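dumping this here before i forget
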Amino acid sequence: MRPVVFDECFGWLHPAAGRRGVVLCGPLGLEAYCTHRAWRALAERLAAAGLPTLRFDYPGTGDSRGGDDDAARVRAWINGVHAAVRWMTDTLQLQEVALVGTRLGAALAAEAAAERGGVDRLVLLAPCSGAAFAAEVRAMARLAGAPQPDPDALEFNGFRLSAQTLADLKALDPVRLASAPAPRALLLARTDVRDAALLAGYLSGLGVAVDEEPFADYAALMRSVERGVVPEAPLERVAAWLAADAPAARAEPAPLPDAPPRLALPSAVETPVLFGPGGGLAGVWCEPAGFAPADRPALLLLPSGAWHHVGFARLSVEIARRLAAHGYASLRMDLSGLGDSASKTGQPDGLIYRRGSLADTRAALDWLEARGRRRCLVLGVCAGAALALHTALEDERVVGQVMINPGLFTLGDGATAEALGRDESHPAAFYLAQLGDPANWPRVVREAARRPGRLLDVPVALLRRVLRRFSGSAPQAAFRRLGARGVRTLLVYSAHDVSLGELEAHFGPGGAWFADQPGVWLETLPDADHNLTGRAARDAFHSLLDAYLAGDPDGDAVGAIDGAPCAERA
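structure:
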């Protein structure tokens, strides 16, 4: 796997010696995060079959340049596919190129192929039109009660479709292609929709030889970022179909340029990197484009839960590029078995709160030190916050930490986010409010009849909190150790977040224990969700982070910040 940058887009090339290359056109929005690990698995499978494969981030998404509010997003996404095909064809000297698209990415791939010509094969996985995609996002947003600050736009899970994007999506439809996108196509259609036959018939009418099959594992693939699975059968089918009748391969993969790929931004220069044992860890190094004071610590941005290194709704990308404008460098990384990093031998993928991840953060700190960045800050959300805490405890190169909504303060053998979700602990006030509402009593009775032992959960949890509060706990000892070493902590919670239960369990209601603990700054954001999705929540967090870096409120700065405006948010 090799990182590449082309036309302000970021990507990963999976090299192979074949002369038929494959460009993967992923889905967008939440679906892109859900399928990220599966998309990597497909690229590896295709490369193993002798097909050099490129997966990339569309303009304004992932690690690429731009954002949701840039003009002409749909046209930019299609142009991104064109740029990916050009880069593959020119750099690898290919004889043939194939496109694979999923969901909205399938519509983008089909449109680009029809415009460009010269695409030899096209794979459409659960394709949808732009209008259908927007309608589904709108339905999910309404079901979730997601606020819509702009009545002309659509926002859900941090993905924003502007009024112009919504209008342009209406014209994006595979059954309106003006010409045949490729001589042959493989269509793996959802089994819960009825328009697959219409698309197959339309493509056939354009002269395309269509192989149509059901995509039976679609629902499992799209369950969520934490729970999505890698569907073996469809990936094998796609790899076999694309490898069939491929031109004879070279003896070795085509050589790539020696210069490291770099993405130039107004305030930063970003370089994708591979580091750690065997180069198995992936990340993006973000440096200020201009002068950077040598005494400022670098930031190590840790992934949130099972999300990859860009963060939920690109939060890590936003933080990195924003702080680069103030002279701070940062490394955002994936842990073993997550995102773009390699799997751990004998270890299932997707595990979080894993003590073994400390080897990964240690490798990242070693990489930073080799570049003259010995003093570091660590920042993480949820599971990343717990990993930040234990990285700071184990490594004296960490001089400060920023923890956002830590679900736990401990690490262990690791668990899936789904398993951890069953054991979430709310603050005591939450349970009292639930029991105080008569509308909840029938549900409590049903749960008690189904699992009588659950009646003891609340009193046992409250008893444990009392014992921890008065006898101390390992997390209390951890913060004492860091305070004694001079490590400053910014601890940020969203009001009403489920992680407040863990805070209360170890540190009393509202984290009262921290009132007498030097070096810890505890703040609550009133209008924020767990992942700081909304613009107002993010702006409030950025203000807190600026103040923390400047030394407020304690006056003991870990690195000065000059308050210069940010040139680019994402």
